[in-house]
Amino acid sequence: MPFVYENYVESAAYIRRLMGERRPEVLLILGSGLGYLAEQVQDPVVIPYGEIPHFAVSTVSDHAGRFVIGTLGGRCVMVMQGRVHVYEGYSAEQTAYPVRVARLLGVHSLLVTNACGAINTSYAVGDIVLITDHIRLFDPDPLIGPNLSEFGPRCCDMTYAYTPSYREAARRVAAQAGITLREGVYFYFTGPQFETPAEIRAARLLGGDVAGMSTVPEVIVASHCGMKVLGFSLVTNMGAGVLEQKLDGAEVVATAEAAGDRFSALVLGCLPLLDGEDK
After folding, report:
1. Residues 263-278: pLDDT tens digits?
2. 84 annotated as ligand-binding
3. Binding site annotation covers 258?
4. Buried b vs exposed e over 234-271: b needs ≥16 C-beta within 10 Å?
5. Is 32 annotated as a binding residue?
6. Which residues bind phosphate (predicted)?
7. Residue 54 labeled ligand binder
8. Average of pLDDT values for 26-53?
């Protein structure tokens, strides 16, 4: 059954009681192998997803499955140390559920991260990609079903799903830190299997630069409820067929951890610039 508005209100009320005087402004979603950033949160309140009413629980081994709420990069943040995915058996609405709850708690911006495979053959493992747009073709959509008008309109605009002013801020931060920042389109596949070589070739023809199994449901819901969005993908492998080798999930986590210093510097540099204003 689809969620109703009262479900989100109950979840938000539970979190609000535990986080005390903290007033988070940014929701930071950490993808595969990127959960280490949550360990840098100061004065944290830690809330496992399984304790929150109506929340789905992450079943992926490298996703801790908890909120860490506190100060990071000078901002009060809600950090999702791991997320849930459609491939775990959850609906698209369930995977994006935390975004609406964060909105009810006063969060105005989403900084979303993921590990991805490179479709663009000019990319290399270890590259950080600024997401400029995404492609979702036949996969589940989190807005299907009754519209919750308390969050947004029946048909929401996606022209600026990835906020232009936030993208420009990310470019400045990367340049100042000496970090090479690619830019590209994220192509959404549900997984859990990696894409076939033919699927990667098709995605390239359609304009995709990187491929992944998350992020898009969360960004759609963020756009629907008026949140600003900044997205980064970390290239942890080349897409199937780009190299003459099989893909391995362990490689994804190892590459993400190896890029920790650069990725952390970029995220921490961007957090103070996410002000939620229309620009």
Report:
1. 999 999 999 999 976 5
2. yes
3. no
4. bbbbbbbebeeeebebebbbebbeebeebbebbbbbbb
5. yes
6. 32, 63, 83-85, 115, 214
7. no
8. 93
Helices 216-224 and 92-104: crossing angle, nearest 10°? 40
| 115 DSSP assignment | E
- Rounded CA-CA distance 211/203 in Å is 8
**CA 229, CA 23: separation in Å to the nearest integer?**
19
Return the closest-CA partner of residue 60 out of 99, 28, 34: 34
The position carrying tokens 């959404």 is 188
Establish whether 115 is an annotated binding residue.
yes
Residue 39: partners with Cβ closer than 8 Å, 6 or more residues away = none
- Can you give the C-alpha Rg of the chain in angstroms? 17
Distances (CA, A) of 145 to 4, 91, 141, 142: 11, 12, 9, 8
Q: Is 63 annotated as a binding residue?
A: yes
Pairing of strands 42-48, 26-30: unpaired
The model's pLDDT over 131-187, given as tens digits with 9 standing for 90+, comes to 999 999 988 899 999 999 999 999 999 999 999 999 999 999 999 999 999 999 999
pTM of the model: 0.95
For the record, the structure tokens of 12 come out as 């938000």
3-state SS, residue 63: coil
The token pair at 203 is: 């995605």
Give the amino acid at 143: L
Q: From CA 136, how far away is CA 216, in angstroms rounded?
A: 8
CA angle 160, 76, 214 (to 5 degrees): 45
